Each structure stands twice: as structure tokens, then as C-alpha cells.
Amino acid sequence: MKILIEAPILTESGYGQHSRLVYESLQGRGFDIYVGALGWGSTSWNFENFKQYGELKNDMLKFSQVIENAKAQNQDPQFDIQIHVGIANEFKKKAKYSVLVTAGIETDRVSSDWLIRTYQGIDKIIVPSEHSQKGFLETSYEARNNNTGQNTIIGCNCPVDVVPYPVRHADPVDLGLDLETDFNFLTVALLGPRKNIENSIVWFLQEFKDDSNVGLILKTARSKHSVMDRNITEEYIKSITDRYTDSKCKVYLIHGAMTQDEIHALYLHPKMKAYLSTTHGEGYGLPIFEAAYSGLPVVATDWSAHLDFLSAPYKEGGKIKDKKLFARVDYSLGPIPQHVVWKDILVEDSQWAYPAETSVKAKMRKVYENHGMYSKWATALKINVLETHSEDKVREKMYTALLPELMRNALNPKQVDDEIDQMFASLSDQ
């Protein structure tokens, strides 16, 4: 069975991690795998993954050869299954059965173009969170049928499965991080409207203006990892902190690329006491996830995808019940600003969360003054996430979601071909 994986498999992005998860879930199962490596935005390429995944280079070369042979014969390459990791509006069908693996739903709905693609060849969608699943399944648009002249409702025309990210193990290293403050909040995010970094800085500076022992560490970059970008980022942060020169608390910047070992060490640093996110919305919330399985108390907006993994069974009042084990920031839902509208990605009629300033300040203060209780929550959450999101469990879940039952259980190639043909014939009749 020929499987094509089109994905940013060598990038440092969240989609890069998702791509490698897809590849790993299919390795060693007897499939004929072809990999077309894609870029993703401005994220850097990580060629260390060549060393980690021994067969990847060969599978990429196989794909290049197939493309060249198809061009020579003036034909399209033929695959049984296509797995596209990315966003829906970049999808083009290239196989009998096509799966889209995507994460980019930070608001409450998806674009009409994304839904239309489910009528044009996407047979299944895999997302990392219930929030993203809900975005696909609960979004609909009214459209006119040009043949009948009647209006019709367009919704998602394929199944949507949820497969989360797995825990990534790392060996912590010594960062040589010299922090003047003993109690520090950590934020890991790219600068931009959705992450709400400016408000995080301002509200922190206002709340802890009289405390010289409290810091906020920002691990960020605007886009690239250049000296110029660092200078721009430093100037941007300084333009905010300069408004609060009377604040005794500290704001630190960590800029540029870090290895997974270094990132892990950041969460585990003895002076790192809590993770702070005032996000408007997440498709998954990978840094929040990393903080959770590192055992770092979390302060975060009480809305969107990260809620999937911030709850765990917890004994309270003599009873064990599922509990949200983080400092929950109150919010209100409202339309996204006009300046962040992005055609076919962040749609004009969508909403996201606006965290309440008073709640953010109150929850930071509570974590600071009651750190023992929140550390206890964080430990319980860490234990649960490490168990439920282990690499083995998530890979198996991804494998199950990727391939239909007939394909997974086929006994021989001939049977596979016959059963697949019958299945696709039935799908085309629907």
C-alpha cells in the first residue's frame, strides 16, 4: 500500500511535531511510505531529525523519484492514501483516500473554504483537540445551489477525529540562566495579537510593581532567529516596560531557537514557579502542554484547546473527581479584531476569548501567595498527562485514526486492493 505523507516534517513548528508523529505511527507496519517535505511559515528547519528517523531520508528520496518518473511519463503519481499535514486551503487530492491533519483553529469556527474541501476530496480530518473538532463540526454556512437556485446549508462532510500531541521526553541541560528574581512566571510564545503578550507584560508589571523578587520570563521571537529580529523584539518589549519605570519586578527576554532539551530545562528551572498564558485561543497550546507535563503550575485563559489536558482525577473532600487543575482566568467571548482577519484562516465572523484583566492579576497573585497548593495541583496534572499522553498511546491512537478498518486489518495485498475499491465506490455513492 502506497502512502504519501505531505508535511513540514523537518520544521521546528507544532505542525512539524505533528508530522513526525504521523510518520512514526506508520513506521514498521509494512507500508510503502513516501514523504514530501514542506515548509511551514517562517519556522526554521531542523535537520537533526534526519538522524532521529533512519528511514526518513530514503522515503523523501523515493518521493522525489516518483515525481520525476511521473513528469517523464506526463502522468500524475499514484498513491493509495494521502496524508496532508497543514491547513485545509492548501490541500489538493492526490490519492484514493485523503486525510487532513490540522491544528489551526484558535477561534470558534472554521472558514467556509475549509468546509468546502470536505466535499472536494478530504475523506477524514484529524485534529489535536476537542475545541478544534467542535470548530469543524459545529460550523455551517448558507450557500446557493447553482443548479437548483435553492439555498443550502454547507457543513463538514467527513468524520473528524481527535488525536492529541504526545509527551516529548528530553534530557534537561544547564542553561546557565542567571535570574535575579526567585519567583518567576514563564511565557513561551511568538509575538502577535493572538497570544496577547503585551497585556501579559502590562498586567504583570502593574500587579507586582512593588515586589523586586518576582519576574516574567518571555521566551519569544517575532519570526526568525536573527540578531536583527532580537533587536526588534527587545525594542518592542522595552517600549512596554518603559511605561512602568516605577515597577520593581523584572521582565526577561530569551530569544531565538532552543533545542527540546533546552526548552525542557526552562520549564524545570528551580526559579521557574508558574506558566502564564493570557491567550485569546489555541488550536492545542503546545507550550502550555509542555508546562503541564513538566509539573509547572499554569495560569491560563479558561477557554479553547488547552482545556483538553488541564483536567485530571483529583481527590478533594474525600472524593475523587475530575478537576481543572490550573488557575482559571475569566474571559468573555467576542469578535476577533478586524486587523487579525486572515482570509480562509481567521474568518471575519469568528470569536475568541478576551481574558479579564482583573482575573489575570488575581490568579497570578493567588499562585504567588498559595504556591504550595498550585504545585500540588501541578504534580497531579503532570502524573495524569504523562500517563494519558505517552508517546506509545498517542502513536497508536494516530495510527487507528489515520487508516480505515479495512486497511488496518487487511491480510494480503490482493485483499487490500479489493476491499479498498469497494469502500471507495461506496464513499463516492454517498
Largest sheet: 6 strands, parallel
Cα gyration radius (Å): 23 Å
Tell me the domain tally: 2
CATH superfamily of the largest domain: Glycogen Phosphorylase B
The CATH class designation of the largest domain is Alpha Beta
Overall CATH architecture of the largest domain: 3-Layer(aba) Sandwich
Summed over residues and divided by their number, the pLDDT gives a mean of: 88
What is the molecular shape?
Answer: globular
* Helix share, percent: 25-40%
The CATH topology of the largest domain comes to Rossmann fold
Helix- and strand-based class?
alpha/beta
* Widest β-sheet, arrangement of strands: 2-1-3-4-5-8
SS strand fraction: 15-25%
CA(first)-CA(last) distance: 25 Å
**Unreliable residue stretches:** 410-430
- SS summary, helix count: 14
Instruction: Give the number of DSSP strands.
Output: 18
Layout of helices and strands:
Layout: E1 2-7, H1 14-26, E2 32-37, H2 48-52, H3 56-72, E3 79-85, E4 95-101, H4 112-117, E5 124-127, H5 130-137, E6 141-144, E7 151-154, E8 160-162, E9 183-188, H6 197-207, E10 214-220, H7 227-241, E11 250-255, H8 260-268, E12 272-277, H9 286-293, E13 298-301, E14 311-316, E15 319-324, E16 327-329, E17 331-335, E18 351-355, H10 357-369, H11 371-388, H12 391-402, H13 405-408, H14 413-429
Helix pairs in contact: 1-12, 6-10, 10-11
Structure commentary:
It is a single chain. With 430 residues, the chain is of the alpha/beta class. It has two domains: 203 residues, 3-Layer(aba) Sandwich (Rossmann fold), CATH 3.40.50; 206 residues, Glycogen Phosphorylase B (Rossmann fold). Helices cover 36% and strands 22% of the residues. The protein has 14 helices and 18 strands. The protein has a six-stranded parallel β-sheet with strand order 2-1-3-4-5-8, with helices on both faces. It has a six-stranded parallel β-sheet with strand order 11-10-9-12-13-16, with helices on both faces. A hairpin with a 2-residue loop joins strand 14 and strand 15. Helix 1 crosses helix 12. The chain starts with a strand and ends with a helix. The C terminus is likely disordered.
